[in-house]
Amino acid sequence: MSRHHRRNHLRLSRIAAVACVAWVAALFCGPPSAIAVPEDVAGLLDIGGGRAIFLECRGSGSPTVVLMAGKGNGADDWLQVLAPGDPEQDAPGDNLPFGRGDLIHSSEAVLPAIARFTRVCAYDRPDVRMGGSDISTPRAQPHSVDLDVDDLHALLTALGEPAPYVLVAHSYSGLIADLYARMHPETVGALVMVDAVSEQMADVVNPAALANWDASNATTSDQVREGVLLIDAFGRIAAAPGLPAVPAVVLSADKPWRTDLLPESARQGEQVTFADWLVAQDRLAAAIGAGHITETHSGHDIYLYSPALVVEAIRDVVAQVTRVHG
């Protein structure tokens, strides 16, 4: 799911566009290790091959938490919350994907809250933000999940943040985090799956509904430019090495989807159901040996509805990683 109606397309980097100074010098004028990375940074990072990725990092300490947004969304999502007292907090269904609810930037959002106890970074995949002078280099869409894994590895390598990382993945990013952990197990200290898509969906959903879901997520438009290949991702994960045994938490939505608010064209044929989703969430938690938080009082975007709950889950695994790695 994506939520483009709230995105701030005009947000500018806080890094001044000056030649080879401070953080920009470290990123573009020499190897990433040439200059120590400041505590609070935001801007484009050269990841090689003529490409750059926007990221924002705050705080200090170890392990570094990496926030990974869902399809069509990016770093700015982790700076927002659903306004306190908003009627959508108590609504029985999840209306945020349909433009309802007042989203505000807040010091209680997930990224700034984590920055108060450890290092945290969030980033924009290509084509999730369409305005501003600091957008990640676009790519052909739709694209396969292995490209996102490669980008994340290149990003963390160029940034020079030391492993292990705590990967916090929402929605589609669950597939990126899963495959990344399989391909780079030595760099992953913990996984936090926030209502994440998982390969278990391939076993839960009937083939016709799965094909419709895959086609819907691969489709792009002027408003939603990121397209992803879910069935392809399930196959790549199934063929990859096993996941490392690391601390893990799964958080699942308990507000059902409002399929009645979808346009008529999107309701044609077999569809993935919220019941399917919950079964897959249970199976994901079991497969990765994770604690499973099911009473979230949230829709799909748990980090907007209940940021403190997400932060506490992250704090818990950070403590576990610290005990193991120091």
From TrEMBL:
Give the matching Pfam families. Abhydrolase_1
Q: Give the molecular function GO annotations.
A: hydrolase activity
Which GO cellular component terms are attached?
membrane
Q: Where is the signal peptide?
A: 1-36
What are the record keywords, sorted? Hydrolase, Signal
- Cite the AB hydrolase-1 domain residue spans from the record: 111-205
State the name under which the record lists this protein: Alpha/beta hydrolase fold
Please tell me the species this chain comes from: Mycolicibacterium smegmatis (strain ATCC 700084 / mc(2)155)
